[in-house]
Amino acid sequence: MSDEGKFKKLWGGRFSADLAQEALEFSESTAADSRIIAEDIWGSQAHAIMLAECGIISEDDLGEILRCLQEARSEYEAGRLELRRDLEDVHMNVEVYLREGAGPEIGGRLHTARSRNDQVVTDTRMHLRVRLLDIRAAVADLQETLLQRAAQHTETVMPGYTHTQHAQPISAGFWLSGHASALQRDQQRIAAAYQRTNLCPLGAAALAGTSFAIDREITTRLLGFDGIVEHALDAVGSRDFVAEALSALAILATNISRLAEELVLFSTYEYGMIEIPDAFASGSSIMPQKKNACIAELTRARTGTIFGRLMQVLTSLKALPSGYNRDLQEDKPPLWHALDTIDSILRVFTPMVQGMVLNAERMRELASANFAAATELANFLVRERGLPFRTCHQIVGELVGTLIKEGKTLDDYERVQELLSAQGQQLTIDEIAQVVDPTACLQRQVSLGSTNPEQVAGMIQGLGSSVAQTREELAAVRNQLQQARAHTDQIIQHVLAGSPLSECEM
Ligand code: ARG
């Protein structure tokens, strides 16, 4: 059989007919693969260098392969490399590009000791790792914005809710920093997903490894991986790193959706506690007065689409037999979708939070209006009168019940005084005023992690340091990836200048 084969496909040797057009259209993956072209070229460069270093291909052939791959890379970077659908996927496209440039004799040598099975999962891991870093940086931006806003409002009282009912007074800074705190765990989850993503499956070949004496450490280093997925069968057949990344993204989206929900609620007329910046809200085509928190609503809904992508991937992974199965091709579209969705959410969310206006007056009004200080009144009786908490809960509960019937609040000090006195508790008007004042309520919280302004300021600072640490970590990891790319490039330049590979550090 000639090197060109009877049929168009590079794998066409054993076939007696070309792939039907319908079957090609059904199975080709160039749309999703267009995201991993740079990775596929870098992976091919590293593989070729390793093959030559191990004496599996000649240095002359390596030079020709690298020359063509560099050309492919320049074409790609200039936006001129379009994947041909009839070539099925990115791997075949890059290989055909190489064969056309270097000829089948030399071009045909690149795929020694390699399979699309280990290639595709290598490319996916390389692409995903960078996206995870980008998302962590965007989460850090959101955290910083939340913390900046929180720092301005450690003494701004608002109602804290349980069951979406007024519970106890908190500060707006406490509310906002709470979201930054949750996002710190998302940082950790994405960092953990990164750790299991940035491992090199290349060299697993189709499933069993290879009878060529390759050096997987070289490709691992050249491609910036932190380690190897050693077991070849596991390396090509597993996508739990994709499921793990999607889980981390789904949980991140869940956390952001909780803030989104609050922005929708708190910006309503009924709450009136915040105003969404005009640039992040939209109007109604019929009702001229409307201002809708559409960005927050869409965030809420798109969180569901990310859950869907996670389910989609888990469902295709479930019960898959060992080794590569074509089902695995279906991992990338949902992964890209989830990454893009989170990315776009963060892009709008951070400036929206930055620009939203907090209505401190309305927050204070609501914090006083609906008995949010009742717990503090019970706590006062426990502290000052030495009564059991349950007894005080009962006393204040009866007081509140009567005030509600009378259409009064805890701010009706004289009536509060009378009703407490009827239950045997004598308080001065000053004491009552002090106990139910929402600002004083914040000040009285002393426990670690409470809404007390000093506690909140401390937590804002602590979270700020965590975010700064995240930024340093991200810079170091990005630098490591750039170094690997630069290392590969140095070797390429060296070889293209006609110098021997033995002079290169691997
Ligand atoms: N397009 C495939 C994927 O995304 C690449 C690997 C195909 N391997 C194969 N033997 N057909 O998973």
Structure description:
- With 506 residues, the chain is mainly α.
- It has three domains: 12-112, Fumarase C, Chain B, domain 1; 118-364, Fumarase/aspartase (Central domain) (Fumarase C, Chain A, domain 2, Up-down Bundle), CATH 1.20.200.10; 374-436, Ribonucleotide Reductase Protein R1, domain 1 (Orthogonal Bundle).
- It is 64% helix and 4% strand.
- Helix 8 links the parallel strand 3 (199-200) and strand 4 (227-228).
- Helix 15 packs across helix 16 (413-422).
- It is elongated, with a radius of gyration of 31 Å.
- The model has no long low-confidence stretch (mean pLDDT 96).
- Residues 29, 89, 116-117, 120, 326, 328-329 line the site of arginine.
Keywords:
506 residues, mainly alpha, Fumarase C, Chain B, domain 1, Fumarase C, Chain A, domain 2, Ribonucleotide Reductase Protein R1, domain 1, 3 domains, two-stranded antiparallel ribbon, two-stranded parallel ribbon, 19 helices, 6 strands, 64% helix, 4% strand, elongated, binds arginine
Annotated CATH architecture of the largest domain: Up-down Bundle
Low-confidence runs: none
The separation of the N and C termini measures: 37 Å
Assembly annotation: single chain
Strand fraction equals: under 5%
Q: What's the helix count?
A: 19
Helix and strand content put the structural class at: mainly alpha
Q: Count all strands and give the number.
A: 6
Spatial shape: elongated
